[in-house]
Amino acid sequence: MHDMLTWLESRETEMLDLAQNWADMNTFSANHAGLDAFSQELIRAFTVFSLPVEMIPLPPYQYCDTNGELRQGMAAPALSLSQRPGAEHQILLVGHMDTVHPAQGAFQKCVRLDNGMIQGPGITDMKGGLVVMLFVLQALERCPWKDRIGWRVIINADEEIGSLSSGGLLTAAAAGCHLGLVFEPSLPNGDFVSARKASGNFTLVVRGKAAHAGRNPQEGRSAIDAAAAWITEVKTFFRDHDELTINMGQISGGTARNVVADLAVIRFNVRFHQREVQTYFEEQLPLINHRIAGEHRVKVELHGEFQAPAKPLTDDVRKLFGFLKEAGVAVGLDLNWHASGGVCDGNRLAAGGLPTIDTFGVQGGNIHSTEEYVVPESFVQRAKLGLTFIHMWYQAREKQSE
Ligand SMILES: [Zn+2]
User: Fold this and answer.
1) Angle, to 10 degrees, between the axis of helix 128-141 and the axis of helix 2-10?
2) 2-65+73-196+310-401, what's its fold?
3) In a 3-state reduction of DSSP, which class is residue 88?
């Protein structure tokens, strides 16, 4: 083990250069040309394993446009490779190549900051994590105990838009594996995320009837008035469920000040930890929709779904955090973890029944902003931690099967 950790330490410059080159390539979720180019770059990097890399086309996803009409969107294909699929212990390693940073705009290239950090689009979330994954696997392949471990890598291109197309692939892949590792960044202080909330994205489309605001307003039925009443009612109704957060993220509608609005579109997000909360929400929301539709004589349609179920801290996951703590001590890190309201592909793997730790990527902060930065030392630290963790997990499983 010691030799492998030393080998990882000797790769630091290579890791940092690779992460910066990757972050300099724009891979905004809607930038399919950029995602194609980056996929080729990833395939090149993964040739070190001499394994075939598969590009998996994904089903289209549905979304609601600004006119309240349902449309289909296409996600770029996911990349997949596997090593020793017949081995006793199977690990699924997951990452995403897309970022939230648009191809237009000033934030495109990495810079070294005066405080030693590297700032760059997606360097932390999660090009840096992909680099850590690549080097953990290279180190693993140099270990004599690797033969009883098989692994599969899946890198999707639609995580930042909810993995709507790749979610099914991830959950299905989880079923055949024993350990899930997702290379999302750790929290800014290096801590891990344990439990995660469930999340659903919805669009409410309200259709009323247009009329002149001065001549015949009584003949119109305002979709905006109905939408406003709906928001108030929903917020009031679920107010006492502190478990449940409902965020009205975006609202649009109407055409002009002197026209009774015939359309309003509300985009909102719902999060919670407990499964029962979802059931309650799904029972009550249609009743509110129906009531508002009747009172305001408008049509109300609800689109969307709960994409990711909650990721609870199960006994199996607790056991993994035990190995993580030990692995941390072995490489000189004092690690802790907390629950989070955030959602990631770890939720998808948990939905497939796979015990998963989903913050194995690099340490950094201000992600999803133009101030995103990474802590350079964390590349080697996290790679050493990842390899040590896998070794401990493997030893415990071997012992168990004796
Ligand atoms: Zn991410």
Assistant:
1) 140
2) Aminopeptidase (3.40.630)
3) coil
Which residue spans of the chain are classified as CATH 3.30.70.360?
198-308
**Tokens linked to 107:** 């934030």
204 vs 234: CA distance, rounded Å: 12
- What spacing in Å lies between the alpha carbon of 217 and ligand 1's midpoint? 48
CATH 3.40.630.10 location in the chain: 2-65+73-196+310-401
CA of 126 relative to ligand 1 center, distance in Å:
5
pLDDT in tens, 276-312: 888 899 999 999 999 999 999 999 999 998 888 899 9
121 CA to centre of ligand 1 in angstroms? 12
- Average pLDDT of the residues of the chain: 96
Residue 227 pLDDT > 90: yes
Q: What is the mean pLDDT of residues 141-164?
A: 96
Q: Give the tens place of pLDDT for each residue, 49-59.
A: 999 999 999 99
For the segment(s) 198-308, the CATH number from 3.30.70.260, 3.30.428.10, 3.40.50.1980, 3.30.70.360 is 3.30.70.360
Ligand 1 mean position to 131 CA, how many Å?
14
What is the pTM (predicted TM-score) of this model? Answer: 0.92
Task: State the DSSP code for 359.
Answer: B
Best CA proximity match to 178, nearest among 386, 387, 322, 393? 393
